[in-house]
Amino acid sequence: MKHLYWALPAALLLPACVTINIYFPAAAAEKAADRIIDDVWQLQDKKAAPTAPAGETPAVQPAP
C-alpha cells in the first residue's frame, strides 16, 4: 500500500516535466507581418483618396 502513495504522485508529476518546444521561422513571420501592414496602409490610402460624389460623372475633355 505504501508503494501506491509514491506511485500516484510520480505518475502525475512525470508528464509535467515534459516540455514541447515549437519554433516559428522568424523570417516567414516577419514577411507575413510586413504583408499585413502593407495591406492595412493600402486600405487607409483608399479611404483617404477623394472620390467623385455619387451621381456625378467626372468631366471628360475632348481629344485634340
UniProtKB/TrEMBL annotation:
Domain of life: Bacteria
Keywords: Signal
Keyword Signal applies: yes
Signal peptide: 1-28
Record-given protein name: Lipoprotein
Source species: Methylovorus glucosotrophus (strain SIP3-4)
